Amino acid sequence: MTKTGAEEDEVEGVLEMAVATRQARAFGALLEDAALDAGARQVSAEIASEELSKQIVDTEARVRARAELRDRLTQVLRSRKGKVAELVEAERSLAAVNEEIDQAKSWLREMGGRVAYARVTVHYETGGAAGSNFLRPVRGALGSPGAIFGVIAALLILAGAVALPLGAGWWVQGAVRRRLAPAARPAPEAPEAS
Predict the structure, then answer these.
(1) 70 and 26, same domain (yes or no)
(2) For residues 57 and 158, is the Cβ–Cβ distance under 8 A?
(3) Distances from the Cα of 26 to the Cαs of 31, 114, 129, 185, in angstroms?
(4) Which helix or strand (DSSP H or E) is residue 19 part of?
(5) Which residues partner with 14 through β-bridges?
């Protein structure tokens, strides 16, 4: 089990368990119910087991074949028929076969354990500050001014980024109009003589 964060901060953790394979689905349902009762929600779930049936069948067949070979080698050694070199070789072969049988049986026990138990990993996080339900809104209200000021600052920066080029464009347009305005005005007409 690992956990990061303090009670007043966001909390995250991982819990790894070995659950009996036959009970994995029921355990998952109980875990989901407990989470819902605590006000949490399940984001995703997956139950998977390792497929080892072919490996188990193959290893059991290998153990049976090696046991038959062991029995034949034992019979050769008991009868003591053959040359000394052949008997010594049969003894070495018997020791190697016994070692292979022990190793295969060990693999079978390990695979049986892997099939018997499913690994369940639970990742959890608070998604917000943990703590009592009474203090959570108070902490949220106290933390809000910083967030509000951040949003206001972001809006001012955005408004400045839009208003500055527009304001500069209007100012240039007004300056051009003021310069061109005296040249474009018609000359005053002379009063008519009567």
Answers:
(1) no
(2) no
(3) 9, 19, 31, 92
(4) strand 12-20
(5) 2, 123
Q: What is the pLDDT of residues 108-145, one digit of tens each?
A: 888 877 777 777 777 777 765 445 556 666 666 666 67
Alpha-carbon distance 71 to 84, whole Å? 19
Q: Are 39 and 12 in a shared domain?
A: yes
Q: Are 36 and 57 within one domain?
A: no
Domain with 147, as residue range(s), is 132-181
Cβ-contact 147, 51 below 8 angstroms: no
Q: 3-state class of 123 per DSSP?
A: strand
Residues 6+ apart with CB under 8 A from 124: 11, 12, 13, 14, 15, 40
127: left (phi over 0), alpha (psi -120 to 50) or beta: left
Is the entire prediction scored with pTM above 0.70? Answer: no
